[in-house]
Specification:
This protein is of the alpha+beta class. It has 17 helices and eleven strands. The chain folds into four domains: about 100 residues, 434 Repressor (Amino-terminal Domain); about 110 residues, Arc Repressor Mutant, subunit A (Orthogonal Bundle), CATH 1.10.10.2910; about 110 residues, 2-Layer Sandwich (Beta-Lactamase); about 40 residues, no CATH class.
């Protein structure tokens, strides 16, 4: 970690603990003058001081993570891209590093404005059509849960260890995973029922009957049963994790978080941490080999790889996304800092979209963001749906990415020149918030600057130039 000036964060932490500057200095083994210099941003907050904070006060080092700062910076750039007065990058960096609470508030206001504009557009398009009934766009609970998972680096140690213990018990017994889960649920008064049609999983709290689809594969059956086990046997553990704002006053978000954590437990049961991490490291994170070894789907493997951040035994910090052909991101999980636009419009140069034209293949891409960060991305497309001619199918592409500094640990780095800065494909968060002027794939102008229009000149790249930040507007 580089030396970072985070005096505001440190002062806020001290205020929350009700400690004087002298008391905190004594707890950290520092002189009061040295601590005062850190709080006034006259000295950097170094790694040794961070470790002392963690040991003395039990502080979560994620609060001072550069990854969190990079994520906030990306959100601020998107939220303020079309501000009336252009805001310089150093100013945004200062807010992200020193005032993260303010940064999150600005980003939240931007999301709310975007949701309201979408709702207004929907209502406007339906005016005059009496057959259409306006449907409100409710995206905020999903955003809250995504932020919650990201804040925990997509890893929840109590649930992870509980699932690992259950997996060990299931393998020790003579029962298979499904049979063991059925027995364990039966001990909780839950009866199992199979249905030819309907939802994958349906539980009736009154009769305590769990109905599962008969079409589920063995691993899918185990996943749904483990999800129900988490909601029944580990409900208190789940509630303990979400007894924090905003879930204390937002019931839809709270329920969604409970489902997400129960699914997390199920994935950790099928792929127990220690065994799965050892297998992943030994095969250099080969997704296909892991899928075959643990008899689960490729998407389940990718999900689990994005959660392997146990303290003292972390795996590669991955970012996992699932997109459709229209560019909609339906799943987004992260143990790292990769940033794409939350509001859609992701980069067409990203290899996740190329995967649709090459189904069944794993595509590797070394990509660079405008801020200079480089990533290794692995993409694969798949089609899902009911069996039978004419049955509806769903096509998705999955992307699993990590920072380029971890790339040599992955089998997908074979043949890539990781040392060549020109080898990376330049991608961005989306055209409207991407500041690359010479991109031939650009679909919209960068909203952060005034578009420079010259009727006497035709360029090879669309919207390829704009005025400098201090140029007057139109």
């Amino acid at each position: 970690m580089r030396k970072t000036f985070m005096g505001v964060k440190l002062r806020k932490l001290r205020a929350e603990r009700g400690m004087t500057q002298i008391a905190l200095a004594q707890a950290l083994g520092l002189s009061p003058s040295y601590l005062n210099q850190i709080e006034q941003n006259q000295r950097p907050l170094t790694v040794p001081v961070l470790l002392k904070l963690s040991r003395a006060l039990g502080v979560d080092l994620q609060q001072f993570s550069e990854d969190d700062e990079a994520r906030l910076l990306a959100g601020l750039k998107e939220a303020l891209a079309d501000a009336a007065e252009p805001i310089s990058l150093p100013e945004l960096q200062e807010v992200a590093a020193q005032m993260p609470g303010l940064a999150r508030a600005v980003i939240d206001l931007y999301r709310r404005q975007h949701a309201l504009l979408e709702r207004l557009e929907t209502l406007s398009s339906q005016l005059g059509d009496e057959r259409a009934s306006p449907e409100p766009i409710v995206s905020q609970p999903f955003e809250l849960v995504r932020d919650f998972f990201f804040a925990h680096q997509n890893h929840f140690d109590p649930l992870d260890r509980a699932a690992e213990q259950c997996a060990a018990e299931a393998k020790v017994s003579s029962w298979g995973a499904v049979a063991w889960l059925e027995q364990r649920l039966g001990g909780l008064g839950v009866r199992l029922r199979w249905a030819a049609e309907g939802s994958k999983r349906s539980f009736d709290p009154q009769t305590r009957v769990l109905t599962l689809s008969a079409d589920l594969a063995p691993a899918q059956r185990a996943f749904q049963m483990a999800t129900q086990l988490a909601l029944q046997a580990f409900s208190a553990d789940i509630d303990a994790l979400i007894q924090v704002p905003p879930f204390t006053h937002n019931e839809p978000a709270r329920r969604l978080a409970r489902v997400g954590l129960a699914n997390y437990f199920a994935g950790a049961f099928l792929l127990p941490y220690g065994e799965f991490l050892q297998a992943a490291e030994s095969c250099r994170y080969d997704i296909e080999r892991l899928s075959k070894r643990f008899q689960v789907g490729l998407e389940t493997v990718c999900h689990r790889l994005s959660t392997m951040q146990r303290l003292g035994a972390p795996g590669v910090p991955f970012f996992f996304v699932r997109v459709d052909r229209a560019g909609n991101i339906s799943k987004r999980q992260s143990a790292t800092h990769f940033h794409f636009s939350r509001m859609g419009g992701t980069c067409p140069l990203w290899n996740v979209y190329e995967a649709f034209s090459r189904p069944g293949q794993f595509l590797a891409q070394l990509a660079a963001m405008p801020d200079g960060r480089r990533y290794l991305w692995v993409a694969h497309s798949s089609s899902q749906g009911e069996a039978g001619y004419g049955s509806p199918r769903r096509s998705f592409a999955m992307g699993l990415g990590c920072d380029a500094r971890h790339a040599d640990r992955l089998v997908y780095a074979k043949g890539l020149d990781l040392s060549d800065p020109e080898a990376a494909t330049p991608i961005g968060m989306g055209c409207k918030v991407c500041e690359r002027p010479a991109c031939a794939q650009r679909a919209f102008p960068f909203v952060g600057r005034v578009l420079a229009v010259d009727e006497n000149r035709s360029q090879s790249t669309p919207y390829g130039s704009w005025s400098p930040p201090d140029a007057p507007g139109p």
